[in-house]
Predict the structure.
Amino acid sequence: QIGAGVSLPGVVAARCGAQVILSDSEELPHCLQSCRSSCLINRLPHLPVLGLTWGRVSPELLSLAPIDIILGSDVFFDPKDFEDILTTIYFLLEKNPQAEFWTTYQVRSADWSIEVLLHKWNLKSIHVPLHSFDADKEHLASSSMPGRHTIEMMIISLAQSEGT
C-alpha cells in the first residue's frame, strides 16, 4: 500500500490473508509510526513498513519483492504530487507488468485530471463504479462519508504497446 497513512486498506488486506507491505513517505516519520501503530493495534507486528517517497527511486523501492496489487487510498489529494505518484506507480508496474494499482479518491475539483499524466507514463485507467460492489450507499460502515462526498475508484495498469 502506498501513502498508507493509518493503513486501513493494507491492514484489512493483511487480516484477510494477503501478504502486504505498507509504505508512506520517508520524509514523514510520524506517518510511518502511524503505520506501525496500526499494525500493532491490529495484531500484525511483523507487517513490513517502508519509507518510500513518491517520485524517488530508492534502494527500498528497487528491492521490493514482486507484487500483484498496489493499493492507494486517496493518494490523489494534492495535484502537485500527481506526477510523482504516477512515476512511482509506473516504476512498480514496469517491474511487475501484470500488477495493477487500485485507488480511490475524493473528487475535490473538476479542474484536475490525471489523464494527460496517464498517457505520458503509458498507463491506462479503468473506472470502477461503486455500485458494482455495493459501495454507493449514503451511509457505509457507519460512516456518512460516501453520502456527503463524491468518491471514485479506478484501476491503473500499463497501457498495451501498439504491437501487443
Summary: The mean pLDDT is 87.
